[in-house]
Design a protein that fits this description.
The complex is a heterodimer of chains A (about 220) and B (about 150). Chain A is an alpha/beta fold and about 220 residues long. Chain A has helices at about 10-20, 35-45, 55-60, 75-90, 105-110, 120-130, 210-215; strands spanning about 1-5, 25-30, 45-50, 70, 95-100, 115, 135-140, 145-155, 175-180, 185, 200-205. A six-stranded parallel beta sheet of chain B has the order 3-2-1-4-5-6, with helices on both faces. In chain B, α1 (about 10-20) links the parallel β1 (about 1-5) and β2. The chains are: A alpha/beta (about 220), B alpha/beta (about 150).
Amino acid sequence: MYIIIVGGGNIGYYLAKTLSGERHEVLLLEKDRARYRTVSEELGEIVMQGDGCEVALQAQAGFGRADAVVAVTGSDDDNLVVCQMAKMEHNVPRTISRVNDPRNEKLFHELGIDATVSSTKIIFNLLEQEVGGGEVIPLAALKRGNIEIVEIQISPKSPVAGAEIRTLLTEQNALIVAVLRGDKYVLPSGDTTLEVGDCVIVLVDADQEHSLRDLFAEA
Amino acid sequence: MNIIVLGCGRLGSTFARLMHHDGHNVTVIDLQSEAFRRLDTKFRGNRIVGNGIDEDVLKRAGIETADVFIAATQGDNRNIMAAQIAQRVFKVEKVLARIFDPVRADRYRQLGIITLCTTTIASGLMRDFVETGEWGLKKDYSAEYLQLNL
């Protein structure tokens, strides 16, 4: 694959290094001359100096034949424009953007970016898994993050311990797909009762994840 | 009208003062509070310190009830992103972005944002001047602005 990385900071540098080690064809674009010199001393010819938002430079860098463009600068606005221009001008099949403000993930998807990565959100999710008894833990994102699969542990204080599934999630666009109990799992039906210690797997619209939190949270 | 101006540089501050003079309800956003010095004490509009691509900042500036959003910071990409947020997320009716790069100005115009490319407008006027010896603008905007004595 031919992969173009825009932004030669730490993320871009290590990504370029790792990908070229995997025998992909890689090009790393860095705007700042001083930083470019540092990075190219290490990585050699696969680094190019210039502004990845400029169409002329994009053509020169071969965006037209790139399989993927990855924008990992520290500015969300620059990452957005790199990816949008790559799509509009060069029809790049896959654009991936780093987002610094995790709230921008949804916006970027709406604006046509194929995939987004938010280190803030990843670390936040990991922390939640560590500390969040009774919390809603995201397991996977489907449909570009519009739908999520989450896990909720039923704690002794949870207001839904002892509740029948039919009485829950009546207003949310969400579905309980499995209840993990001990080493086994229960295929849920309306009259399944939730017990303390159950781990409930829920398919939910991403924007309604918060209402799950309210419903299942410890009282 | 409720007008939000992002970026209080020469363009943003001049436009904000004009709109305030015309009786509009103007809010100016800039990253740095010092930038608001460009607005005279006569300017009675709102000043918001913050990042114009942050939805919370835009809400604080009243974007949910804004009729017009003008992105006029120094950064093309910042203007492009802010304009898209205004248009797509907050459904502001009139959205305009100042963009220096002619290519980006053209492509984002095709995406439905009104883009003001001062680069090509100025160079086009200069080209016409070279060819015809005449200045293409019928109206003297500078004199008009100075006469208002804002």
